[in-house]
Design a protein that fits this description.
about 40% helix; alpha/beta; single chain; six-stranded parallel beta sheet; Rossmann fold
């Protein structure tokens, strides 16, 4: 029996599953060189996950088990799962990768049940890791790998991000594609796609900046067009979510892609910067996007406070007024802006919350179609930034043991829903959540498809007086209706 690599993607959503793109990229890098299997926890009942993996391990001559781990639900599941599998199969070699692993690799390795971690983008280094397990390469020659040797953590030289044009096509045949083509606000058969690596900015609150340090490498517009048309031909997609960290960085590339989608009947969504789109995008780019499928753009508005924006070090010229101006402009092009806010920053949470609520209401006034997503501030380990240092000074610290991350407290913290940061008091969280209930009632999201027109009308009617008169306290009637009756889903937790 030939050896096989098992690649596991822990559950990250309860509905509308997306392809495990990180593992598919790893698989593409060794396609034809080593047998492997991708196992997606999103497609397995939670109570059966360990049983499924244990059976695979028992029935297969496993070279190693690779697990990708993001903060939040994936981490919460993976810690006890990995610990249990290691206890059952002590000779099984377990490798972690992903954002959480990259940022907290020491904590992961010191757990005692993860043998190796791959830091950063692992596409290029993954074949090296396979060669190590095959006995063809020394462990010290695997770039991006960290491990414990003689009681000391060893960090091999970092691996550099690779160009997307050099990546092999995803092994779509290795996954259940039909399970990942779901109806969304964009279309009936929506797929996810990643068309660039990193981000050219170093925002002080962003984990992307900590991992890629300002590097951005885009797939060429020509290859991007080819890949999307391939998916249309082979899997009949009609819409795409671009999960790039900054899809709209270069207007010429985006305009070329948009023109390449002419007459293809494909709608699409991506993430962009407010100042870039407002200042750098010519009318020709907006026109091409508007006419060729761009339906919605996710935008990091972050705060209504100029002082907070300055501390966030977004690296551009964004102001609160820019959000209003862009919302108004996008209304003219028929493209929906999706503004994300991180409320309750440690500088002055009271002022930040107040100014952010004021900004949101101004945005909604000029463009009611604007989508609003609210988070509470959760710092990331990006050393050397003033905002993070201020959080530490006020008493914030991360868990020192991997098991300590597995709690309701830290799960909610990673989802940016936890009130227990040192600078945020219960009344701050009440302010944010109460306003969120009123906002979502008066302006129900378009992105939650099960919400009917009648339900939206009921919510708007009940929330209207609160919104118009800025009375947000104790919205008990809205909480009951949205949580228990309509089962309203927040896009910040599970997307749209």
């Amino acid at each position: 029996m030939s050896k096989k690599i098992l690649l596991y993607n822990p559950r990250s959503a309860k509905w509308k599953f997306r392809m495990p793109m990180s593992l598919m990229a790893l698989g593409a890098s060794i396609e034809g060189l080593q047998d492997y299997e991708i196992i997606d926890g999103n497609l397995i009942n939670d109570t059966e996950t360990e049983q499924v993996l244990a059976k695979k391990i028992q029935e297969t001559d496993v070279l190693f088990l690779g697990i990708t781990v993001m903060p939040g639900p994936q981490l919460w599941q993976t810690v006890p799962l990995t610990k249990s599998l290691k206890a059952k199969f002590p000779n099984l070699k377990i490798v972690w990768g992903g954002y959480f692993t990259t940022l907290h690799y020491e904590t992961v390795l010191e757990s005692g049940y993860v043998d190796f971690v791959m830091k950063g983008q692992a596409d290029f280094a993954f074949p090296q890791l396979v060669e190590f397990f095959q006995g063809k390469r020394e462990v010290s020659k695997v770039t991006g790998l960290s491990y414990i040797e003689n009681g000391k953590i060893i960090e091999n030289p970092a691996t550099a991000p690779t160009h997307p044009d050099d990546h092999k096509r995803f092994p779509y045949h290795k996954v259940q594609m039909e399970r990942y083509l779901n109806p969304t606000v964009l279309g009936k058969r929506t797929t996810a796609f990643h068309a660039s690596v990193g981000c050219p900015f170093t925002c002080s609150f962003c984990a992307i900046a900590a991992v890629y340090e300002g590097k951005w490498i885009p797939m060429s517009s020509q290859k991007l067009i080819e890949e999307i048309l391939f998916l249309k031909k082979e899997y009949q997609i009609d819409s795409v979510e671009f999960h790039d960290n900054n899809f709209f960085t270069a207007h010429q590339r985006v305009e070329e892609f948009a023109l390449g989608m002419k007459n293809q009947n494909i709608t699409w969504w991506g993430e962009g910067r407010i100042d870039t789109l407002l200042e750098k995008y010519p009318e020709s780019a907006w026109k091409a996007m508007s006419e060729n499928g761009c339906k919605m753009i996710f935008l990091g508005a972050e705060s209504g406070s100029e002082n907070v924006l300055e501390l966030m070090d977004k690296g551009g010229t964004q102001t609160p007024q820019d959000c209003i101006d862009l919302a108004k402009m996008m209304k003219g092009y028929g493209i929906i802006p999706e503004f994300s806010f991180v409320m309750g920053n440690p500088v002055d949470p009271d002022d930040d919350i107040r100014q952010t609520i004021e900004l949101i209401k101004k945005i909604k006034k000029v463009n009611p179609e604007s989508e609003i997503i609210l988070y509470t501030y959760s710092p990331v380990p990006y050393p050397g930034t003033e905002l993070y240092d201020m959080a530490v000074e006020q008493g914030f610290k991360y868990p020192q043991k991997l098991e300590d991350w597995v709690s309701d407290f830290w799960l909610n913290f990673d989802l940016r829903k936890n009130p227990m940061t040192p600078w945020l008091k219960p009344h701050h969280i009440d302010q944010i959540r109460n306003f969120e209930y009123v906002l979502n009632a008066y302006y129900p999201t378009q992105t939650y498809l099960p919400l009917t027109d009648l339900q939206k009308k009921i919510l708007r009617l009940l929330g209207s007086w609160r919104y118009k008169f800025s009375i947000y306290e104790y919205p008990i009637e809205l909480r009951i209706l949205m949580n228990r009756v309509f089962k309203y889903r927040s896009p910040e937790i599970e997307g749209f």
